[in-house]
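Internal tracking record. Fields below are filled automatically when a chain is submitted to the structure queue. Please do not edit lines marked as system-generated. If the sequence contains nonstandard residues, flag them in the REMARKS field before resubmitting.
Queue: standard
Priority: normal
Entity type: single polypeptide chain
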Amino acid sequence: MTTSIDNVGVVGAGTMGAGIAQTFAQSGFPVTLVDAFPDALKRGVEKIRAGIEKSAKKGLLDAAAAEAAAQRLTPASALDALAHAALVVEAVPEKVDLKLDVFRALDGLLPARAILASNTSSISITRLAAATRRPERSIGMHFMNPVPLMKLVEVVRGLATDDATTEAVVDLSKKLGKTPVVVNDYPGFVSNRVLMPMINEAVLALMEGVATKEAIDDVMRLGMNHPMGPLALADLIGLDVCLDILEVLHRELGDDRYRPCPLLRKQVEAGRLGRKTKRGFYSYPE
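SYSTEM-GENERATED OUTPUT FOLLOWS
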């Protein structure tokens, strides 16, 4: 059974959800962005409009295309607004109970043929899918940050995800101008299973006084040709998100190489989460 995806929904208006919604809108898809918190929804819509305007200024969209993209976005505060969506991407915080609640609610609301996708960074797609009556139509769409610019979509097949769903999501990702890479459902998938130990080791090196944060990042940028150093990247991702992912990896794989560095945990406890709080390993003045 093939699935025609002509309108989509995104749940969660944070950094990732707003970026995903912007990408859909700029790619010609009517998109409904849902967040139960009015302030978060307002910030998300403002971020999307600013992102579309930025794309226009860069020459990626002409004025008419930018206006059309903005018109394709519909903000909403309740999941009921997604009742007719062909595909919904869940992009709420990286907490398994919260994601399970969203998946269950969407499963009871969406048409039988609709696809449920999660933007989770590390939580089992199989587990999320098992909470629904459509495990074969549940899948991971792991976008990279910043979503409008980054080309990769990690398409994660759960144990029950069928070929038609996978093919539909791969095709959709290409229509978004992305490069889909299909992976199987293991903790951290490929991206974060490889990335997070590097970030964690960089934080350990900082904690142990091996070098300054600038020196650690410079070694990886200049020596390994990374576009930014691991500590700056952690600030971009969000130190709380990095900690959540490492905790999932540590718990699910049972390997101490994924045990979060105490300094990372301390930064999160202090509320120094990176760019979104204006301070992480680096400071980000207005």
